Amino acid sequence: MAGVAQVSRRMTVANPRRSFLRKTFGKSELWRGVIAIVVFLCFWEIGARSEKLFGYAFPYFGLLPPPTDVALAWSKVLVKWGYWESWYQSFQRVLLGFIAAQIVGIPFGLLLAVNRYFREIFFPPFEVLRPIPPLAWVPASLIFWPTNELSIAFVTFLGAFFTIVINVLGGARTIDVRFLRAAQSMGASQWDLFWRIVLPGTLPSIFTGAAVGMGITWEVVVAAEMISGGGTQGSGGLGFFIWNSYMGGSLPQIVVGMISIGIAGYLSSSAIRMIGNRAMPWRHLF
Amino acid sequence: MQEAIDIMDFPDSTAGADAISGRVDLKSVSKAYGEEWERQEVITNLNLEITPGALTVVVGPSGCGKTTLVNLIAGFETPDSGEILLDGRAITGPSKDRMVVFQETALIPWQTAYENVVFGPKLRGELARDALRQKAEGLLAKVGLAEFMHKYPLQLSGGMQRRAELARALINQPQIMIMDEPFRGLDAMSRGLMQEFFLRLFEENQRTNLFVTSEIDEAIFLADRLVVLSNRPAKLRAIIDIHLPRPRRYQMLSSPEAFRYKRQALEILHQEAMRSFRGSQAVYSASGR
After folding, report:
1. A122 with A177, same domain?
2. pLDDT tens digits for A182-231?
3. Is A187's CB within 8 Å of B123's CB?
C-alpha cells in the first residue's frame, strides 16, 4: 500500500505541468463541448450552402453566410487596427459603466439592507426607476449629458446598477440571524458585525449581481453604440462595427461582430467568476 | 484529557475562579409576540433558578417556548415583564458571559474552524497573539479537531461542527453555557457520541450549564436538574433532581433509577400533551359543532 501511495505522489510532484495539461484536456466535458460546437458549425455550413448543394435553400439557415465565409471575413478584419479599436472602445465603456455601478451600487444596496430609515426613504423611488429599461434612458441621457461618450457610459451604468443593488440588498437581508447573534455574544460592535458578518455574507450575492450585471452591460453598450455611434462624434465600438457592416452590406462581417461580442462577454464573466472564486474560498471546497 | 484541563483554567479565568458564579434567576418572566390584537403568550410568569456549577436541562413539548427562553437569557430578546439576573445583576443584552450553542450550527461559514474559535477573544483583544493561538489550538485539540482546524465548517461533518462550536463557546469562558438543542439534526450514532463527549467536558470542569432539549433520554442522561416546562405558554411544571452518579456512563440509562426518572418526566409531559389535546377539542366544540 505504501508503495502505491509513494508512486502516485512522486508522479504528481515531478510532473505538475503534465497534470495541468491532463486536467485541462483530459476532461470529457471539454471534448463534449468541442464536439457540440463542431457539429453545430457543420450543420450551419451545410445549411448555408444548401441552395448550391441541394438546389433548395433551408429556411433561415439558407440566408446566413456560411461559417467559412465568416472565418474568411474575420481573418481580414483581424489584421485591421479598426477592429481592435472597436474591441478596446467597447471594453472601455463596459468597464467604466460596470465599475461605476459597483462603486455606487454595493454601498447603496448595503445601506438599504442595514438601515431601516434609509430603506423606507430610498427603496420606493428605486423600485419605480428600476423597471425602466436602460435603453429607454438613451434619448433623455443624450439630451442630459454633454457628450455622446458620457451618455453611453450613463446608460451602461444604469444597466448594471439596478441588478447589483437588488442582489446586494437580497443577499444582505437573508444572512442568518444566528451568525449575527453569535458574533454579538462574543462582543462584536455594530462595525464588527458589518465588516465580519454582513459584508462577507453578502459576497456571494455581490458576485451574482456582478455576473448578471456584466451581461446586461454588454447588451446595453452594444445597443447604445448602434443608436448613438453612427452620429457625428464617431465613437465606434463593437456595436457600431456591426451597424457599419450592416450599412455596408457585408453579411459575414455582421456575424464576425456578433461572435466577437459573444467572446467579449464570455471573457468578462469568466474574469468575474475567477475573482469570485478567489474572494470566497469557502464556497468552492468540493 | 487530563492535560487539557489546564488549558481551560487560565489564571485570568473569571468563570472557573469562584464556583458560585453563573447563577441565573428568572423572576416572574413573561414574553409575548405579535401585535396587540393577536398577542401570543409564549412564556407566562416563569420563575426559575439555574443553579451554578450544575447542568440544568430544560425539557418541554416542542413549540413550548424553549428557544424563547434561551433568547431571553442570552439577551437577544428582552422580557415583557419580570427580570432575569446573572449573579444578581440584570441582563441587558448579549454578552460573552452567556455563550449560546445554537440549534444545528451557527459557525460562521467564511471562517475556518480556527478562525471561528479565535473570533471572540480577537474581537475583544483580550490575549496576546501567541497566547491566543496556543489556547485555541489546545481547545481544538481537546475537541478532537487538531487536524481539521484550518477547514471551513462546510468541510466538517455534523459532529465536528458541533464540537468546533463547543470550542468556540468555551474559549470565551462564559459564566453560563446555554445549549439550545445543540445535537438536533445529528444521526443517532453521532448524537450518542456527542452526548458522552459533552458530559466529559462538563464533568471535567463543572461550569453552569443550561441545556435545552426535547429528547427525554438525552435530558436524563445529562442532567443534574431536570426542568419540565408546560405547554405554550411555558410555565414551570416540575423540577426533578437527577441523582445518577457522575461520571455518567451510557449504560446508566438502562438502570432502574433512570427508568423511574424517565417515567416521572414522561407522566408530566403526557399530561401536558393531553391537556393541549383537550384544549384544542374544547375550541373545536366551542366553535358551534
Report:
1. yes
2. 999 998 888 999 999 999 999 999 999 999 999 999 988 888 888 765 54
3. yes
Instruction: Report the residue of chain B nearest A285, measured CA to CA.
Output: B155
Asked whether residue B9 carries a pLDDT value surpassing 50, the answer given is no
Structure confidence by residue, pLDDT tens digits, A270-285: 999 899 988 898 887 6
For residue A178, give its domain range. Answer: 68-279
Q: Which of B110, B118, B127, B157 to mutate to test the interface with A (most CBs of A within 10 A)?
A: B110
8 Å CB contact between B218 and B183? yes
A176 shares contact with chain B (CB less than 8 Å): yes
Domain count, chain A: 2
**Residue A209, domain CATH:** 1.10.3720.10
Residue A112 lies in a domain: yes
Please check whether residue A166 lies inside any domain of the structure. yes
Residue B246's domain comprises: 22-97+175-286
Q: Is residue B135 part of a domain?
A: no
Q: Which of residues 111-130 of B touch A (CB under 8 A)?
A: 111, 119-120, 123-124
Are A201 and A273 within one domain?
A: yes
Interchain proximity B100–A282, CB inside 8 Å? no
- A77 near B CB under 8 A: no
Whole-number pLDDT of residue A6: 42
Q: What are the chain A neighbours of B99 within 8 Å (beta carbons)?
A: 185-186
Q: Does B184 touch chain A (CB under 8 A)?
A: no
Q: A64-114, pLDDT tens digit by residue?
A: 888 888 999 899 888 888 888 888 888 988 999 999 999 999 999 999 998
Give the predicted TM-score (pTM) of the model.
0.78
